[in-house]
């Protein structure tokens, strides 16, 4: 496994961990079986944040059907904490492409989340 592959997997796993935590939090909120959490774990996500993380995950799944690379950029930058330079190196693309993909993906996600929010309300 090379460095790029490692960071790509790490960012995907981070996303899954955060989403799974949000799902657990939402289930507990709806009266599901309560899990024991430390105070640090309980403070990670508020109910509103859990809902936002789940909405973001759904929007990312929709974006993946259109442009997988933009999802990878979001995962690496947002969930993996990688810089533009690191993301470019991992994906084998230019820094300008990362910046462009990051901006376009954020705008697409913002529009998608706002549309989902207005549909739910």
Question: What does this entry look like structurally?
Answer:
This protein has 121 residues and is an all-alpha fold. 80% of the residues lie in helices and 0% in strands. The protein has 6 helices and no strands. It has helices at residues 3-29, 39-42, 47-66, 68-79, 84-91, 95-120. Helix 3 packs antiparallel against helix 4 (68-79), helix 4 packs across helix 6 and helix 5 (84-91) packs across helix 6 (95-120). The model has no long low-confidence stretch (mean pLDDT 81).
Tell me briefly what this model is.
The protein is mainly α. 80% of the residues lie in helices and 0% in strands. The protein is built from 6 helices and no strands.
What portion of residues is helical?
over 70%
List the helices and strands in order. Answer: HHHHHH
Helical run tally: 6
The largest pleated sheet is described as: none
- As a percent range, the share of strand residues is under 5%
**How many structural domains are formed by the residues?**
1
Cα end-to-end separation:
46 Å
Number of strands: 0
The value of Rg in angstroms is: 16 Å
The chain-level structural class is mainly alpha
Q: Regions with pLDDT < 50 over 5+ consecutive residues?
A: none
Q: What is the arithmetic mean of pLDDT?
A: 81
General form: globular
